[in-house]
Design brief:
The protein is built from 4 helices and 14 strands. Strands 2-12-9-14-7-4-3 form a 7-stranded antiparallel sheet. The protein has a 5-stranded mixed sheet with strand order 1-11-10-13-8. With about 200 residues, the protein is of the alpha+beta class.
């Protein structure tokens, strides 16, 4: 089994992984956390299972109970500045980021191994509150190749290409509260679904 650990510099260890420490300041972080807490969060549901993290989607939502991909509430004005900054970091136009997912992780909450839904392409996340560990893995023979990236408070990451499509990722359960904002663009499949609606 091959194991790697990312450092806190902007150089990715795997194609398609970009990371930057201190993407926003403390004042903006506090404002985003307050907005997230006021946004009508609800427990994440996957089929009959209810997760510990609280979420809300804007722009587009994916219902993990039904598999339904559908329009959601518009991305609110309080996310527009950070969306533009996230797009610039990822080399995208702000209009490309059509979905925003906000999450609050209370103690004990994390995310299990998964890949983002195929209707989405680029994934740009901003980490708020406590530091988190974002883990990556992909099948390598009889085991897994693994990578762990510490997500510092106020940092940003971008997943595309190899790391987005060939690797799964997860978030280690939190000991302290954490919040996140994740923006996504549509894949060709997602754009096709939108055109046929």
């Amino acid at each position: 089994m091959k194991t790697a650990t990312a450092d806190l510099f902007d150089t990715p260890h795997v194609s398609g992984l970009d990371y930057r420490d201190t993407f926003i300041g403390e004042v903006e972080e506090r404002a985003l956390i307050a907005h997230i807490d006021d946004a009508g969060l609800s427990p994440f549901r996957f089929q009959q299972w209810t997760g510990k993290r609280l979420t809300h989607s804007f722009g587009w939502s994916y219902d993990f109970e039904t598999g339904r991909f559908a329009p959601a509430d518009p991305i609110p004005a309080w996310l527009e500045r950070i969306k533009a900054a996230a797009a610039s970091f990822a080399g995208l136009c702000p209009a490309d980021l059509v979905q925003a997912l906000i999450i609050r992780y209370d103690p004990g909450a994390g995310i299990g191994w998964h890949k983002d839904r195929p209707v989405f392409e680029h994934v740009v996340g901003i980490s708020l509150g406590s530091e988190a560990a974002m883990r990556f893995r992909r099948r390598a023979g009889k085991g897994f190749e693994r990578l762990s990236v510490p997500l510092a408070p106020r940092s940003v990451y971008h997943l595309s290409g190899e790391i987005r499509h060939e690797w799964e990722h997860s978030i280690v359960p939190m000991a302290e509260p954490r919040w996140s904002v994740t923006f996504r663009s549509l894949s060709d499949k997602g754009q096709m679904v939108v055109r046929t609606r």
